[in-house]
Amino acid sequence: MSRVAAHDGAAFTRLFEHHAPVTLGLLSRILGRRMEAEEVLQEVFLQVWTQADRYDADRSTPRGYILMLARSRALDRLRRRDASRRREEVVGAEQGEAVSPLGTERLESLERRRQVTGALDSLSPDQRRCIELAFFEGLTHTQIAERLEAPLGTVKSRILLGMNKLRQTLSAELQ
Amino acid sequence: MTAAPHSARFEELLPAYALGALDGDDLRELEEHLTAGCEECRRQLELWDRDLEALAGSVVPVEPSETTRARVLRMTAGAATAVPPPRRLPRWLALAAAALLVMAVWGVAGQTRLRGELERLTAERDRLARQVAVLDREVTLARDAAERSAQALQVVAAPGVKSVVLAGLGPAPQAKGQTYVNPRQGGALFYAFDLPALPQGKTYELWYIAAGKPVPAGTFAVDPHGAASVRVERVPDVSSIQAWAVTVEPAGGVPQPTGAMVLKG
To answer: What ipTM score was computed for the predicted complex, to two decimals?
Structure first.
């Protein structure tokens, strides 16, 4: 990232090649529309290119930084959009059909993805639903309670218990 | 106002805060607490952020299109090698960079408009394609009709054409028919009017009687007005034809008449 901040084009290209697929995967998951997701992907990497000097290596990995930037932009878009018109376009690459040939880095990403997916699977369906609504749709406690027609306190505890369990499973898998 | 000291309650609010799900009093109280500088909460919040980064990376990767890849990588064109940026940008360069950034962002916004236009044009193209298909079909039908008319004219508008009128019988007394035979070509045309439609599995069959024997000359169905026409490519010896008849037969026709006769002449 420091080389990108120094406007090293080759470093930026490597950063894009390495992180764009998972970023686009996240954007597609949040926005549901492939074309819009690709637009936001351009915005995200434009921001990375122009503001890489704001990246703090102590706070996050480059991948985490880019993904959270992407999530924030995608949720902003989502909030501006009419919720009823969501997900009208099926994301064709949902099954990962366009994933590049596996390199070492890809294998590491796959392994990490497998761990997180496994951790998500360890949650109860209700806990998982609440966390996904917050994370991928940007809903707050109150909005989730309304969406699921569940008591607010129940939603709060599902998120707290779910997040704690997610962390436990993840750290157990990493050890 | 003094913020509340660190407590388990704040720790419990942190995961939802990291998710962005906190709202109401919970959000206000935790933000006051964080703003007051609770180091323990800051540290834990960073750990939650790391977990969420892992969650974000759990999605199925999607390879960007070539267009997107080219657009993004074009931003760095001319900066292929590492060049340490000057500590302070000259004012004109900062302004130019700002202008370029505005143009780039404007370009992305422009894509949204272009996408709308593209969708409209695609719908228009599909509508026109459907129209062309309909017109194509109409042209084919018209060409077939013209072909049939030309063939009919060849039979009818020839010297020595013999015409026979067929009258309706038993089940269809109102029906009428007419044949035209061209003795030179040996071709014949038959027209039927006011014949009732037949149930499924049945067909009308045209016959000519030559040397006392019925010879099959084709099967036909009638249109909603009860009309039909049959073109008989070749009748062997025009002078030997004694009569014409139409009977109702099983679908596909039969070599010898078996059903009721509805026209004769």
So the answer is: 0.81
